[in-house]
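User: Could you go from structure to sequence for me? I need the amino acid at each position, not a summary. C-alpha cells:
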C-alpha cells in the first residue's frame, strides 16, 4: 500500500486522545494522514480540547464526524482505531472490515463474547489486518522475558496489581446522559466495564499468555464484592479479585487485583517460575537459575552466582506512552508494508485473553466453578453469559 496510510479514530476520549497524539506525530513523519475523527459529543472534537491532551494535533483537513457509521461510510480510510467504551459497540467493527478497512480495537474488544466472535468473523472474512490494544507486548523488558521463556517452560506466574478506585482516569463518555454512572467513571461500573479484571486485568491476562507462549484453557475465580453502601461513591465493581488461570501446556497463573477506595497506591509484583529458574523484577530484570552442566554442583552456589540479568534497568512504565506509540507505529507499518509479522497480536489471537477475563466473572458468579474456555466460548450452558443483555 502506498503511504502515508489514511487513518481515522472512533472515540476521542481519554485513550483516543493518546492515539490522536501518536498518530499526529506519525503524520508529521509522513507515515499517516489523519483523515477523520468520530465522537458523538461535539466538545470532544473541538481543536483546543483535543490539543489540551494531544499537543501535536492540528485539525487541518481532518474531517470530524458525530457518528462512527457515517465516518466509516464516507471517509476514505485504510485503517481505523476503535477507542470507545467496550459495551458501546454496535457493529461498527464489522462494517469497517466489510469496507476493507484495517481494524485496531482497544481492549477489551467488547464485553460480550458472542459479539467478539462476530467481529472476528467479519475481520477474517474480509481478510483485513487487525490488532488489539495490548501495548505491554511492546515493552522491551517484557519482550526480553518472552525471548527467555521461548526456550523454557513456564510453570507458574504470580501477578499482583495493587491499585485504587482513585486511579481510574478522567473519562469523556457522557455516561450521565446514557443511563450510565453519573460521575462518568464508567471503569468503576460493572455494566460498562465488565469488572476491573475485564477492563484492566485483561492487560495482565494477555501478558501471561505472552510470557507462557500459550493460551488459557480454564479459569477459576473469587471476588470480594464492594459493600452496596459504597456503590454511589466508589462504583459497583468488586474491591478485590483473585483469579487462577490454567494454561494448555500445564502452567498455572494467579492474578490478584485490588481496587479499594482511599488507597492511593499503585504497584505491580510479577514472579515468573520456569522449570529451573525464577524470574524477578528487580532494578534489572533478573533470572535466578543454575545453568552449569554438572548438576547438582559440588558446592551450593550463592543466589548472586546463579543470577543472570535479562534486561538492564530502569524499565519504562509498561503501560505508558512509549509502548503505546510503538504499538501504533507497528500497526501503521504492518498495514502499510503488508507485513502482518510485524505485529505481536491480531484481533483473533487476542480473543483468548478476552474470553479468559470474561470467564473470570462467570466463575465468580458460579461460586468458583472451574470454567473451561472452549465450553465458555461455544457451549449452550454459557450462552446467557456471552450475549449482550437486552437492558443495554
Ligand atoms: N490500552 C490501554 O492502556 C487503554 C487505556 C485506557 C483506555 N483503554 C480502552 O479504550 C477504550 C476507551 O476508553 P477511554 O478511557 O478513552 O474512555 P472515555 O470515556 O474517556 O472515551 C471514550 C470516547 O468514546 C466516545 N464514544 C462513546 N461511544 C461512541 C460511539 N458509539 N462512537 C464514537 N465514539 C463514541 C465518547 O464520547 C468518548 O469520547 C476502552 O475500551 C478502554 O478500556 C485502553
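Assistant: Here is the amino acid at each position, in order:
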Amino acid at each position: 500500500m502506498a503511504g502515508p496510510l489514511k487513518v481515522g479514530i472512533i472515540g476521542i476520549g481519554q485513550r483516543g486522545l493518546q492515539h490522536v497524539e501518536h498518530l499526529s506525530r506519525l503524520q508529521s513523519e509522513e507515515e499517516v494522514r489523519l483523515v477523520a475523527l468520530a465522537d458523538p459529543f461535539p466538545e470532544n472534537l473541538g481543536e483546543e480540547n483535543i490539543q489540551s491532551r494531544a499537543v501535536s494535533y492540528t485539525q487541518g483537513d481532518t474531517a470530524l464526524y458525530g457518528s462512527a457509521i457515517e465516518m466509516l461510510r464516507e471517509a476514505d480510510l485504510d485503517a481505523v482505531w476503535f477507542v470507545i467504551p467496550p459495551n458501546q459497540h454496535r457493529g461498527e467493527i464489522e462494517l469497517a472490515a466489510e469496507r476493507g478497512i484495517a481494524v485496531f480495537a482497544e481492549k477489551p474488544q467488547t464485553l460480550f463474547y458472542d459479539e467478539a466472535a462476530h467481529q472476528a468473523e467479519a475481520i477474517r472474512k474480509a481478510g483485513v489486518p487487525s490488532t488489539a490494544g495490548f501495548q505491554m507486548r511492546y515493552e522491551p523488558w517484557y519482550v526480553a522475558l518472552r525471548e527467555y521463556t521461548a526456550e523454557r517452560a513456564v510453570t507458574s506466574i504470580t501477578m499482583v496489581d495493587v491499585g485504587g478506585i482513585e486511579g481510574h482516569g478522567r473519562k469523556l463518555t457522557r455516561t450521565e446522559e446514557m443511563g450510565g454512572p453519573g460521575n462518568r467513571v464508567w471503569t468503576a461500573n460493572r455494566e460498562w466495564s465488565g469488572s476491573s479484571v475485564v477492563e484492566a486485568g485483561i492487560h495482565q491476562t494477555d501478558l501471561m499468555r505472552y510470557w507462557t507462549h500459550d493460551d488459557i484453557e480454564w479459569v477459576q475465580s473469587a471476588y470480594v464484592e464492594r459493600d452496596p453502601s459504597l456503590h454511589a461513591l466508589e462504583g459497583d465493581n468488586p474491591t478485590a479479585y483473585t483469579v487462577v488461570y490454567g494454561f494448555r501446556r500445564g502452567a498455572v497463573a494467579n492474578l490478584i487485583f485490588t481496587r479499594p477506595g482511599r488507597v492511593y497506591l499503585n504497584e505491580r509484583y510479577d514472579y515468573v517460575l520456569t522449570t529451573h529458574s525464577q524470574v524477578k523484577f528487580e532494578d534489572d530484570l533478573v533470572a535466578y537459575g543454575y545453568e552449569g552442566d554438572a548438576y547438582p554442583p559440588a558446592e551450593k552456589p550463592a543466589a548472586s552466582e546463579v543470577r543472570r540479568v535479562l534486561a538492564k534497568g530502569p524499565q519504562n512504565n509498561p503501560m505508558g506512552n512509549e509502548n503505546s506509540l510503538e504499538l501504533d507505529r507497528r500497526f501503521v507499518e504492518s498495514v502499510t508494508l503488508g507485513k502482518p509479522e510485524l505485529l505481536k497480536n491480531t484481533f483473533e489471537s487476542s480473543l483468548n485473553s478476552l474470553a479468559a477475563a470474561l470467564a473470570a466473572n462467570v466463575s465468580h458468579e458460579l461460586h468458583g466453578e472451574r470454567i473451561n474456555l472452549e465450553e465458555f466460548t461455544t457451549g449452550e450452558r454459557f450462552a446467557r453469559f456471552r450475549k449482550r443483555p437486552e437492558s443495554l
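One structural detail worth keeping in mind: Residues 10-16, 38-41, 44, 68, 83-86, 88, 106-107, 133, 135, 169, 171-173, 199, 319 surround nicotinamide-adenine-dinucleotide (CB under 6 Å).
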